[in-house]
What does this fold into?
Amino acid sequence: MDDGGQEGEGSTATDTRPPRAALDTALAALLQADAEATVAAIGGDLSPVLVPMPADVPVDGHRHLDADSLLDIVTPAGQRVVAAVWGKARAQGLACGPLAMPWGQSQLFMLDFRHRYGVIVAVLTTKASEHEELVESARLPALPPRFARATKDAAARFLHVDDSLLALLGYSAEEMLGHRSLEFIHSDDHDLAIANWMELLDGSGSGRRVRLRHRHRDESWVWIEVANINRLEDPEHGDVLAEMIDISDEMSAHDALRAREQLLAQLTETVPVGLFHVDLRGNLLYANRRFYDLMGHEPGASLQQCLERLVDADRPRITQAVDAARRGEEADAEVGIALVDGIVRHCTVSIRALRDDNGVVGGITGCVEDITDAVRARHELEIRAASDPLTGCLNRTATMAVLQELLGRAAPGHAAPAKGTAVLFVDLDRFKSVNDALGHAAGDDLLVEVIERISAGVRSTDVVGRIGGDEFVVVCPGVAGPADALRIARALGRRVCGPMALAGSVVEVRASIGVAWSADPGETAAHLIERADGAMYRSKRVGSCEPVLAGEPS
It folds into this structure.
């Protein structure tokens, strides 16, 4: 807990805070002098928020202020007093200032008891005059005026300025009287000031309010909102009355907000992802340039136009993600964006709910990140993981997986296929002799050429895989029966077998082919391959590249 007091009862030579005993005495004196005093406990480190009064604070019998914050029940001018008293009390232990309350003019005291009770105790009393010494020690420094008045002639020369305006701008009356108000206004605001003044002279009564920067005597600039009232035709006055309000704090806040907005805008334009903000009706309220670039549109395109670029199959993902965000959930989706040149860009879209201070979802924000390179790399890795590095066809694992998937479509619980699946098991004859006679490089060339011949001789729906050194499998879905499977194998054998130019020689390529077919819902990939393998060995005994069907006598 923040220790708001000293360790001892006295204060050091450099400590301006009152000793703790003095705070106890001051609180007791204030409450004893005014039985109608109102009390409150203040907590919070960022603003004077009212909290329940601790039970051990000696304020029995006094009315407690019923509000969430003092700032909620006072005028804007009173808010400045509250903030100033609170700040001084935190720094010096005790502070007071005059405050207009609904029940009348009061003096606001704040006593810092955080060291003992964990709160600052506020006392609102109408009888502070009985404690002039206490008031004097805790009084706030005089606050600068915010409201001022002046009168001008038709040429906008000052005829009269009140003390508030002199304090506001730091000049003496002699330095302002007889001078045109334009002399005290920032040059960038001259056109606005002149236009406002000319419009005022065209009529009578109040002109439009105008916000202008006025030069302080120390060469700084003070923002003042001016309301001019034309009384030139009024015989009682014959002047223009200017009512002025210091709005420097407000304009400083606006400037700070604008600076933050500019910084945020610059940051959003430098990040490598697309950022967007939509309301709950789907209207695009903001998007950075990167968002439009990724969506393939120029800035200003509507959200509907951007979403039209999504690949059709991916649109439901975005719809589901948006619905989730409306419920306050986080959602991510990977989508494809079809660009005008036919290229598909892959992106991840992260969508989040935008909540207000009460946690209510009032909009949706999100970002779009280009992951095309990552998707391509992932696809290439998947291909490599499933491919034979020499021939480019499927490897053993991938071939078995494809075959099992095809057979699974005939498993219980799936609609029975109208046709079955055939497996052609191809084994090259005398491959070792090619390696021994011509070298392994020539053997590799032979394998590549064989795969090209096989691939050229199968249907577009067939799958070719290498499952061993010189062993290949062709998976043929949608085959009507064993006879059709054998016919496909014979056509393949005629294409594979034959002479081949290799390493300056001509090699006669021969192959043994075993064929297995099944439409059995209980068939497995391993068993079907085993049957085709057995038939291949019988084909090897037959020779002449003649395929053998599993189950037929050799």
